[in-house]
Amino acid sequence: MSIRIWHQSFTVLSDLGPYSDALREHFRVVARADTEIIMHGMAQGTYRTHYPGDDIKYASLQFLHGLQFLAAGVRAEEEGFDAYAISTLPEPALRETRSLLDIPVVGYGESAMLRACQLGRRFGVLVFIDELAELVADNAARHGLGERFVGAHHVGFRFADVLEAFNEPSRLIATFQDSSRRLIAQGAEVIIPGEAPLNVLLARNGVRDVDGVPVLDSLAAWIKDAELLVDLRRASGLQACRRGYFSAQPDKARVREVLAFYGLNTLHATRGEPPG
Description:
Layout lengths: L2 E6 L8 H14 L4 E7 L11 H4 L2 H20 L4 E4 L7 H7 L4 E3 H12 L3 E5 L4 H11 L6 E6 L4 H6 L5 H16 L4 E4 L2 H9 L4 E2 L2 E2 L3 H19 L15 H10 L8 E2 L5
Parallel strand pairs: 1-2, 1-3, 3-4, 5-6, 5-7
Antiparallel strand pairs: 2-10, 8-9
Helix pairs in contact: 1-9, 3-4, 5-10
């Protein structure tokens, strides 16, 4: 039976043609033949420019933008998707969205960290938004993996550099490898390329390891997590916890009322074509 996954990016995908195209191609390669990944980005006009980092480096603005992720998750379930994927390292509103939905909800960073722990004893993360390093450390602790987290460091280049490097990536790959070696010297046995654009750039150019230390494909990790959780639900009825403050599920009618009260029901994510 086929699987439909709602992919939610922190970017306005329609503003980022080369990245959007590379992302679509990567999904086509990684996902099962019967998995359909429908790409969604943030609503038009969310940011002043095409670069979300100017906002999401602030906890307050990221919280506000995270409401789009929550509203999109509700829409994904209402539209019959089998899983909802928060496809960005900061994982805005992951815990809250998971408490609202009956379908599986996966997070980019969480999936990457869990897989990293199966490949090595300790992992490190490379980011191109300096301020995210603190958030990544906090998320690692929230996921219960703080003791296996070496640290998060700046990779040595920026978002705009990644977008420009899709045609000629050799310089950025060399910088990534140098930065990875510094994490390896600190004890990292798995490297997670933090933001999704960096992940796509490395994956499409076959960067699988640095000096024998694996470079994790974080996008592939959440795709496979989503597929697995849908399979498990269909096979055995397995679902997320529904007890306690962080997991109890409110009445869905009330959720729709609250979303409407705050005007979140009028936000529409930009949609891309599914890989195929």
